[in-house]
């Protein structure tokens, strides 16, 4: 009895078992040899799922010649690389990754996908994906062996190599992984530069931390204010320390701008609120400076870390010792989160000292004037062991610059008084 007629021939009942057998084999082969591979990459407090084309794993020869580099790039281009690239870009949006954290994600993922390849090979793959992601990249080589990935940036970055190409600055993202082995090497820019067609510049600015789960510890702070001991128990998100552990050294103001993670912010405000509620405005500000002056051990960075290294507000809360910039980071975020005050961030030109002037309804102490406005100096470090307002850490009559003028509102006050 004929059941099915197709282009191959006639199928009868007697041939069904045989067809089923071959269909089963075909089905098993398809799933036993998938064209894509799934994996996951640890990214700070989360595991991120990835999927990539197995063709990316095929042997790809590399060397520092123009032809060899172009073939390496082209061979990756012939794969379904978009499968992985689109996942990278999706995570960039979902997790709110800035360019540095996006680079971290690409670099960690490439390391996961190519665990047996050396850092030189992985640099080439990372260069490929950063270029395909739209960044203006440049590839350099040295000693016919090393590869260096550079990206164009407008940011001021310290302690990381850079080159200048046609008036633009390109930051080296990879030399950190080679340590001292490549220090002082003569770099040669390759002719094959597909990234030169891209316009996206690399930025190290952070407007917010990545949107990933917190990792918290509880820390107790004790200080005396108006002859009364105050104890604050705060849940602090330690993830910021991990996120910034290998972050490039940028301008001081970038650290001051970095906000508290949400867990830390809510816990700190909750702990401060009962001590601020019901006080006169002067006493509220006095309590804040008492907190930053007295609840932290002071140590100069040059002694503590042998160099000037500002901390973010959250890093400062976690630190055992802090200095002027670190405490300004805390005060800056407190003023932004729990007050409506306008204020200025002041830098001493020939010193590491940074301080803050706050526009209060009444000026306390010696006023600091800037563009017709009188501010009260609320230095978060000096004078130590007091909550006195309006005292300059040193002579501010000359050699200073305004790092930032923060305009919040004309209705000045503490937000808790308006609840």
Notable traits:
419 residues; alpha+beta; C8orf32 fold; 3 domains; five-stranded antiparallel beta sheet; disordered N terminus
Briefly say what this structure is.
Helices cover 33% and strands 24% of the residues.
Q: What's the number of extended β-strand segments?
A: 20
Classification by helices and strands: alpha+beta
Strand order of the largest sheet: 8-9-6-5-10
Gap from first CA to last CA: 85 Å
> How many alpha or pi helices?
13
How would you explain this protein's 3D organization?
The chain is an alpha+beta fold. The protein folds into 3 domains: 33 residues; 162 residues, no CATH class; 203 residues, C8orf32 fold (Roll). Helix content is 33%, strand content 24%. The chain has 13 helices and 20 strands. A hairpin with a 2-residue loop joins β3 and β4. It starts with a strand and ends in a 13-residue tail after the last strand. The N terminus is likely disordered.
How would the blueprint of this fold be written?
Blueprint: E1 4-5, E2 10-11, H1 16-32, E3 36-43, E4 46-53, H2 66-77, H3 82-94, H4 99-113, H5 119-132, E5 137-142, E6 146-153, E7 157-158, E8 162-165, E9 168-172, H6 175-178, E10 188-189, E11 216-225, E12 228-237, H7 239-243, E13 249-250, H8 252-257, H9 262-276, H10 281-294, E14 297-298, H11 301-304, H12 313-318, E15 321-322, H13 324-338, E16 342-348, E17 354-359, E18 368-370, E19 373-377, E20 400-406
Parallel strand pairs: 14-15
Antiparallel strand pairs: 1-2, 3-4, 5-6, 5-10, 6-9, 7-13, 8-9, 11-12, 16-17, 16-20, 17-19, 18-19
Helix pairs in contact: 3-4, 4-5, 10-13
């Amino acid at each position: 009895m004929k059941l099915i007629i197709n282009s191959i021939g006639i199928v009868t009942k007697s041939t069904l078992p045989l067809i089923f057998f071959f269909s089963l084999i075909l089905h098993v082969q398809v799933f036993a040899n998938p064209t894509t591979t799934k994996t996951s990459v640890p990214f700070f407090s989360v595991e991120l799922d990835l999927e990539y084309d197995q063709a990316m794993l095929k042997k790809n020869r590399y060397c520092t010649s123009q032809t060899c580099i172009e073939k390496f790039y082209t061979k990756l281009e012939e794969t379904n690389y978009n499968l992985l690239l689109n996942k990278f870009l999706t995570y960039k949006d979902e997790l709110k990754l800035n360019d540095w954290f996006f680079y971290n994600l690409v670099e960690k993922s490439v390391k996961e996908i190519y665990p047996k390849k050396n850092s030189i090979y992985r640099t080439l793959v990372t260069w490929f994906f950063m270029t395909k992601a739209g960044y203006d990249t440049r590839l350099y080589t040295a000693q016919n062996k090393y590869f260096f990935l550079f990206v164009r940036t407008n940011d001021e970055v310290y302690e990381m190599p850079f080159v200048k190409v046609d008036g633009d600055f390109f930051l080296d993202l990879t030399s950190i992984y080679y340590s001292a082995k490549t220090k002082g090497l003569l770099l040669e820019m390759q002719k094959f530069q597909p990234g030169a067609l891209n316009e996206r510049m690399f930025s190290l600015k952070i407007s917010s931390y990545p949107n990933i789960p917190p990792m918290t510890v509880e820390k107790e702070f004790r200080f005396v204010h108006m002859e009364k001991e105050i104890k604050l128990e705060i849940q602090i998100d330690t993830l910021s320390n991990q996120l910034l552990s290998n972050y490039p050294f940028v301008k001081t103001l970038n650290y001051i701008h970095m906000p508290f993670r949400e867990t830390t912010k809510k816990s700190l405000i909750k702990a401060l609120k009962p001590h601020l509620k019901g006080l006169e405005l002067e006493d509220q500000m006095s309590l804040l400076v008492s907190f930053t002056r007295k609840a932290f051990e002071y140590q100069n960075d040059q002694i503590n870390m042998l160099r000037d290294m500002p901390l973010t507000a959250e890093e400062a809360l976690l630190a055992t010792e802090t200095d002027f910039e670190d405490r300004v980071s805390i005060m800056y975020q407190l003023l932004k989160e729990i007050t409506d005050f306008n204020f200025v961030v002041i830098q001493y030109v020939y010193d590491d000292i940074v301080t803050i002037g706050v526009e209060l309804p009444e000026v306390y102490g010696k006023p600091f004037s800037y563009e017709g406005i009188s501010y009260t100096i609320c230095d978060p470090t000096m004078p130590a062991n007091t909550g006195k307002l309006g005292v300059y850490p040193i002579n501010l009559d000359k050699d200073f610059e305004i790092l930032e003028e923060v305009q919040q509102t004309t209705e000045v006050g503490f937000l808790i008084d308006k609840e």
